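Standup notes
- HV: blocked on the assembly model, inputs below
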Amino acid sequence: MHLSAGPKLKAALILAALAVAVLLPFTLDNSIISLLIFAGLYTLVTVGLCLLMGYAGQISLGQAAFYGIGAYSTAILTTRFAINPWLAMLAGVVLAVAISFVVGWPLLKLEKHYLALATLAFGLIVQLVIVEEAEITGGSSGISSIPRLSLGSFSFDNDFKFYFLVLGFALIGSLLAGNIVNSRVGRALRAVHTSEVAARSLAVPVNQIKTQVFALSAAYASIAGSLFAHYISFVAPNSFGLLTSIDFLVMAVIGGMASIWGPITGALAVVFLRRLLQTVVPMFFPRASGEYEIIVFGLILVAVMIFLPEGLFSGVKSILSGRGLLKSRTLKLKNEGESVQIRVMEDEQDTGGQGNALGSQRS
Amino acid sequence: MKKRIIGFLLVALITGSVLSGCSNSASNTSNSASNTSKPAEKADFVIGAVFDITGNSSSLGIPERDSVQMLVDDTNAKGGINGHRIKLVMLDNKSTESESALAIKRLIEQDKVLAIIGASSSGPSMAMVPIAQEQKVPLVSAAASIKIIEPAADRKWVFKTAQNDALVASRVVKYLKSKNFNNVAFMLVNSTFGESGLAEFKKVADQEKINIVSTQKFEASDTNMTAQLTKIKDSKPDAIIVWATPPSASNVAKGFKQLGLTIPQIQSHGIGNKTFIDQAGDSSNGVVFPIGKLLVAEGLPESDSQKSVLTQYAKDYEAKYGPRSTFGGHGYDAMNMVIAALKKAGDNPSRELVRDQLEQLKDFKGISGVFNMSASDHNGLKEDALVMVKIVDNKWTYLKD
Amino acid sequence: MSGLMQYILTGLSQGGLYALVGLGFVLIYNVTGIINFVQGEFVMLGAMLAIAYQHLGLPLPLVILFTVLTVALIGGGLEIVSIRPAKNATPLTLIIITIGLSMVLRGVALVVWGTDPVVMQPFSNAGPVKILGGSLMPQEFYILGATVLVVCLLYVFLDHTVMGKAFRACVINKLGASLMGIDPRRMSTLAFALGAGIGAIGGVVFAPTLASYDMGVALGVKGFIAAVLGGLTSVPGVILSGFIVGIGESFGTAFVSSGYKDGITLLVLLLVLLFRPQGLFGIYGSKRV
């Protein structure tokens, strides 16, 4: 990662953000806390997705399936078998990871848009199974009365307490991801993203790494799903379909995949933007409901992609640090007859070319 | 340079939205606080509504929203409830469970409502039930599934206005027995509505010794059901029962015509609006279904206790919004009940009081039927709330059986 | 079995629609390399606009013409406004842009037409036509006919017109084409306009069956599946695959269960992707530059 600020300033900023996060619920009312909880859950999923997409370069249109696996594992095990919620959450993770290995190993060999379609199909299949196997999953009606999470005698029974639980998970998840990114594994991931051929020639176990990251993203999504189930105490199939997967994708891309703070930016932006539209739109169009919201949302999405394709976090970062927006340039390299294009993030002033490789196309 | 400015504007917009999201809620709470502290005027009664205005069940949610709005405007124009204006907070749950849960949380915690009506369909209603129970807020649903109010011990705070699918199922079975249709096929839409309907129908059918020879499902978004109908044809039923709402229900009817099926088609109370006839066109003729009396209100005998309420509502609604629908009636009843409960609850009602008053409603003449609530029955309707209707010449006609 | 013919016929008529949707995908992908998530919404617009034009009192042939032209213009316009400015964008960025565009179109349709499906009378009021034990509604013939017509017109265009040949040149080699004086940006806009127009034709013939603001999502997915099955770069592939998907669904409903019918299609897709990712006719790795 490439920050303008020195390490001390960076630490200070992080502490400040943490302080805000911890103090916020004391000052706000419950419905905003509710939104923050959702933002936290989505951050978890998006962190996993960012690892997969931003660093390993794999597009997934099926994360909602793992989200759903976590949610339903929790729902089924806690309501029908009275299993401890934490164990149920763990079981969900195990199941999600297992499925991701089975599905990922063959599919991750595919290239970008084939993989996108394969994950799309996978996500739809999981949703279908949930609906059809009504005996276990409650079918379209879903499962209700999922019990609260508790640690010993302390029960997370209101939004205030649940917020801190989710905050904890989101923080741990982000830090873990940050560590991975800066480790050997992370560098291997980036190598794979840049050029699989090159990575293989450097003895990076490409398929293994891709599958591992996929499994990790599945684990993140599963945990978030379990938390979701406990929060709303109700699960139903239409929360885990294609539109939800697309939502996660949007959050990842809007937030920016080049940084560990991207996912939370994206999740917050999407959640609060939706809420803002819900509140503001009826003021101009009294009889309107969800209709106008989706138009504005789509327009903003398109605008962000055109003008800030690296995501909001990078945009905020560079504006705050007073530099121009990071420009992207396409370098063309030739390598044994196969030409590889690498996009590099560069400063307008800094022509040294230091930066992150973000995307590559083979031609 | 240009990109930089635009990028900056975008970031500013998003940041501004986050901040204003927070300040919006702050100003909302301070507004309602200042409202209730005005000594001279009477405080507003805040009532929340969650309906499926967009999404799969929008053909249910929109007439409900309109009926409720009409009733609230009307009541406020006449001076409100004992001088208290009704402040209606209407939210769209996009026909999903998670938006319903979010909506009810917001209504309870931010808007501090006295009672909530909704949702339009069974799944989203079920999502709100545990929250209403836990937070002890009265909830009056407009949806069909009996699971919304059963088991009664766990549903102290939840009521509903639409006839239970259990009730509808037994009405259908009664009709089947009267025609000696003992072997039937059942087609259902893949949703809570369809699944609950099948479950209730099975119970009654088993009791009355009616055989279900084939069960076929379809998705709400399917447009062609000829495959399912062809399979059913092979099992030779006396009648085919279809449990769905438009547009899938209409597409099933069209399938009947396409295959030239002459087997009697019996649908559910899910087709209680003109949309069905519009979409199915000629294929809708001959369809028989149980429904609240609204659709044939004008043809009812004068002695019918609901007739004047029905005809008045139909007249008012059609003047303002368009063709009537029983769904609008379910929403209307829900709000009307809450108003009736608040009328008896004094100037400073509590949610507990509203709940108690709701439970004590007797002989309440609504659009969906005459309600008699009790601690063990939070729907309060009997079989006489439903009549059998047959579509003839693209119009609803009252079927005496 | 008496039902077999019916299953096949139903599958063919559904398949024709999927083929049309998928065809739009293939055209756009071939020239621009973009996976176009807006394709389903073009179909939806075709259906909704057709009904709107019909309410203006226009005769059916004009309705069809105006609808297709309008949607084609919208398609081209969207490309100019939102795809062109995104220079050097990654494939992912472009995908998200098309997702955003599809949301906007859906939202606009919702605002303009509301949530209730709108109704269009079938083109012909005749009753069902019996064929060998099964039956097809006249409208289904129109769907099949439209598919055939579009394919023929497309071949004429690609093979016998200058613009069509320029189009094909871009497909084969963008760099080479631009060296020959063909502007790939114009071709990109044309591709979107064509893809949108074809989608609109599908929407128009399907409108009497279903026309609602949210019909695009599911159709888009099915069309996408047909396109990939056929190999994203092949026109005959997508047409054939469209029919395969349609018949597969029909048989799935008949022989497995109505609930799992989509699952079977998806499973087949996954298997094809695993063992023959280039689809039936495509060439693996042939992505557009």
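- HV (later): unblocked. The mean pLDDT of chain C is 84. The beta strands of chain C are 129-131, 134-136.
- Next: hand off to the docking folks.
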